[in-house]
Amino acid sequence: MPSVVPEAPAPAPHDNGPGSAPGRVLSTLNEDGTRRWVRPELARGRFYYRRLAVAWFLIASFVGLPFLHVNNKPVFLLDVLHRRFTFFGATFLPTDTVLLMLLMLTIFLTIFLLTALFGRVWCGWGCPQTVYMEYVFRPIERLFDGNRNKQLALDDKGGFQPKRLLKFAVFGILSILVANVFLAWFIGVDELGHWMSQSPVEHPAGFSIVFITSVLMFIDFAWFREQMCVVVCPYARIQAALLDKDSLIVAYDNNRGEPRGKLTKVKLDDLKIGDCIDCKACVYTCPTNIDIREGLQMECISCTQCIDACDTVMDKIKKPRGLIRYTSQAKLATGVGKVLRLRVILYPIAIAIVAGALGYLASHRVAAEVTILRGIAAPFTEGEGGVVTNQVRLKIHNRGDDARSYKLELRPLDGLKWIAPENPLRVPADHAVTTTIFVESQPGAIQGEKSIEIHVDDGKGFTADVPFRLLGPGAKQ
Ligand code: SF4
Ligand code: SF4
Description:
Layout: E1 3-6, H1 46-64, E2 69-70, E3 73-74, E4 76-79, E5 84-87, E6 90-92, H2 97-118, H3 121-126, H4 128-145, H5 148-157, H6 165-187, H7 189-197, H8 204-224, H9 227-232, H10 234-242, E7 249-252, H11 254-257, E8 261-264, H12 281-284, H13 305-316, E9 324-327, H14 329-334, H15 342-363, E10 368-374, E11 380-382, E12 388-398, E13 404-411, E14 417-419, E15 425-427, E16 431-441, E17 449-457, E18 463-471
Antiparallel strand pairs: 1-8, 2-3, 4-5, 5-6, 7-9, 10-12, 11-12, 12-16, 13-15, 13-17, 14-16, 17-18
Helix pairs in contact: 1-4, 2-15, 4-6, 6-7, 6-8
This protein binds iron/sulfur cluster (2 copies).
């Protein structure tokens, strides 16, 4: 078995050396502020293959979910154009403020719980940025540009390398596809198909949105890359507050690894050497360019690549795997970790309460929303012979899954004459329709104002009595 001799720890990838500014510089920047390109070496291992399976399942879900429908409605649709959000066939409107608030609260509390338990498992295993970058774009890059060393050699030549042109062309096509998948979540596959089937001249707005999104995708995956996680993503910043000492993290076992030392041909069995042979395989494979041996860092997205890289090294030097592993800060320090902690108990209780309230309110939502408004311009008009006419605008939002016909009735009639051009009012499923009603009263029938109700009945169990004040001469406005 090879032996090792200790040596001073090698400079970390973001140690800028003598004369550089003291303190830590971003792992993806050079000391002069220029971009430090990260060219990670792929580490194949047990976690890589598990993540590969999860990644392709997720890619299939990202692409397939916008096509899935329940009760003729999409399973998920964040329809920002029409301000409607559909989850599992239930549509929420901006007026569903309480429901939307409860939904967001449930999502946030679930993220808090998952982070407290499993750390940044979302970043490493589920985030579309990681999934597309590591399992679509980077494999293509390796196909065209070769492994890390070949990519670095190309970088060293400086300037744009024509050899990379074909790769960027493929990135461009993929970016257009990813952009279309992304947009399908927000506008729906039908609308997207409509945009795609029309000429850019006929549909400039739709074309511009698809074009801009595709360009942004290209910039992200071809150029911006890990900066999205390191610089932009707010989740990286709030994780410090969400993690505790017992949260699952990817960490290097300092006690086992240090003092680190390079392999030599000399056998020095009496030296007390740690298991880390300072091969830097864990650093070269890191997609955010950090050295996990420096401890928990904000840039770490828990992608497990360093675990696989180090396990391969441990296998080669016949040491137990797990020098870098999933563990917790508490377990590393004391050997004992806790699963049940106060926050891990409180979060599920809070989630149960909030999700329960959400489920109850969602299942008790009214089948339709009726809004009544006064007519535009004058509140009332006086015609020939002193006949007073009030114009009333009635809006019905049908939240049901089928079209409904709403019968309208004015109560009490009391000698009033009313004209409702659309009665019954037909409203398609999940749409809102506004109609105008004219109420005429004989001279002197309304002194100031008169209270009435408009009774709405869909004949299928939904009824509503909406109050309204008719105005006449002498009304206080
Ligand atoms: S891969 Fe393992 S042995 Fe190599 S430098 Fe990293 S921690 Fe040390
Ligand atoms: S330190 Fe390890 S787990 Fe964290 S981002 Fe780098 S390779 Fe992934």
